[in-house]
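Homework help thread (please don't just give me the answer)

Our assignment gives two proteins as sequence + structure token strings and asks us to describe the second one. The first is just a warm-up. Here they are:
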Amino acid sequence: MSAPLKHIPVFYSPKLQAQATGTSPSAAKPMQAIASWIELGIGISVIAPTPATRAGLIRAHDPDYVDAILECRALNGFGTKAADVAASLPYTVGAMICAAREAIKNGAVAVAPVSGFHHAHYSKAEGFCTFNGLMVAALALKAEGLAQRVGILDLDQHYGNGTVDIAQRLGVDFVTHFSSGSEYFLESQAEEFLSRLPSRIASMKDCQVILYQAGADPHIEDPLGGWLSTEQLARRDRLVFETASDLGIPIAWNLAGGYQSPLRKVLKIHDNTMLAAAKIYLHAR
């Protein structure tokens, strides 16, 4: 990276908001996360994302499935056929694509304050995830000639099974994928996880960008998580950004999971991720 950014690009539009559904607050938290970052005084630049197109979505998903979701004929990741969710999905995925493009362009970092990707399979929704924005973005970057290789660093609590399903079905061989949920889930593993994290990132050294799922749900108090403390999660984020920056690999990151109540507890974790990014890429204290 040649020079620090003046602001961290954040791709957000009110159109990517949907009503919170069931036990997941993810659909409603982007605006609150941005408001929290602004209150902290972090220099961010909010940019409206271009929505993902049908053509972009069917690079990673079955065309009939895509149409059924967008036309509210099939159950989304929240287990509903809600029109507001269907309308928000192209913007949610679009935010991830735009953040990835921007990170490559500026050579540093960009943010998509969204979640709900890694459990989405080729032709079915699962676990609050409807379209796999990680794979849609990776395939878009490849098709546009912006990246020959893409890293997916999935540090959500849960295994990114949908990402694996799509990669295997489509024979995708240009993505280096690591999902911590495949092997880490105990408090006793926390320090080992942190010590090995830089080498995991180094395995992506030939990638033109890393798509980072900065999950809040590994927090020890999360009802769907439970093995990393607040301080350890903050260290995780510092290690990710420091290592990627040292290797010269741009990062586009998202909010991923987080299910504590009140939502302020989840936002605090996302605040720490943004603070870590600002320290590295804005040279903030």
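The one we have to describe:
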Amino acid sequence: MRRLSGLIAGLIVLLAAGPGLARGTPESFADLAEQLMPAVVNITTSQLMQQSDMPEMPQFPEGSPFKEFFEEFFNQQRQRNGEEPTRRATSLGSGFIIDAAGYVVTNNHVIAEADEIKVVLNDDTELKAEVVGRDPKTDLALLKVESEKSLPFVSFGDSDTVRVGDWVLAIGNPFGFGKTVTAGIISARSRDLEAGPYDDFLQTDAPINRGNSGGPLFNLDGKVIGINTAIFSPSGGSVGIGFATPARLAEHVIGQLRQSGRVQRGWLGVRIQSVDEDIAEGFGLSEPTGALVASVTAGGPAEQAGIVAGDVIVSFDGKPIPTMRMLPRVVAETDVGKAVKVEIVRQGERLTFDVTLGEMPADDELAALEAGPEVAPSAPQAVEALGMTLGDLTEEAKAQYGLDPGATGAVVTAVDPNSAAAAAAIAEGDLIMDVQQRRIAVAADVARIVDEAKAGAAKKIVVLVDRAGDRRFVALDADVP
């Protein structure tokens, strides 16, 4: 009986520990907080703002004593030294030291457009900070302070191994109160807030408030696994939904900022879209996976390697691409000039291309590279297919529609409002460039390929639509007129 009791007790301990004998709830975070707090800093910024940036004088009823007071105040401001009056705006945030030499990580939005930045250490010492570099796309910035003494610092951890349910500690400067420690768990991973192309946030219920931005999110080993960046809050205070940039992404960006003051990102030269179930069925894929190439930038790395619109990228540099969202992140984190293997699916066949990555152009340069033609409505000769009326791209048609002289395909001149094309938001003036991964030379090609697909019992027919240079694949029901 005694032996049976022992076995039962042991089983209870194992069940309580859970899979992998995970850690239980800590008795206290005090030792860990005491160890980490010296490396966490408060950040204060200030900015001179011109009168044009100041609020207008409030409106008061005639005879109000407040009106006279405010008029006198604003007039004094305008007359002071004959200059446009200014005021100094201040803001607060958090950061953390990553090197004894005085390198400090924070959010870009904490220090953006600041005229003066100060870092306040744990002992209330104030140090003037200079910006080493910043990256608006990931909302990260690296500062440098000079100190006569060696500064305490913390290190990045492996955010890829963090699991939902793991304990985390947030330390920062909420509402300007100074060092504050909060605890919680990782609530979710890979959150997309649509804040940028590289969104991959960790979500936590550790209370994070205004002023925590730029502060570290620690695991129980005392490693930084995230940088607290944003909260979801209808009230402005913590409601248990905070977001942190994962250390994997941050460490890569901060390393480049420290080395050169800017971030170089790999560039493939494609525009992509998600593969949904309809498109997967239309392309003969077993499941909706990968990133569908909607267009290829002329002269870019992908075009030079032989990748074309309609290819589905399923692997990049040995990394599987299960969703569209993953491709921009892994490409951006790959070194410029590196030769990588890109695996694609084209008409049911897996192919591998060797691609040498370029450097991501600046936003204005990229927009110029991807700029498409303007489209104006008109009506050339008609071919009917999938509820669309299509015309050939003759020289006259190109001129009428304002299309690029090198444009290819068939132009949509009308859409049946009850058709599958209308349901997919295809509109007059759109250009049909590709049907079932086959290029379109004349309008009759569309009708022919559609008829062949229907004869082969296809349930979905995938077309590549170009609207003023914005290309997307659309899966249409084959049995809908």
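TA reply:
I won't write it for you, but here's a hint about the kind of observation we're looking for: Residues 181 and 260 are 33 Å apart (CA to CA).
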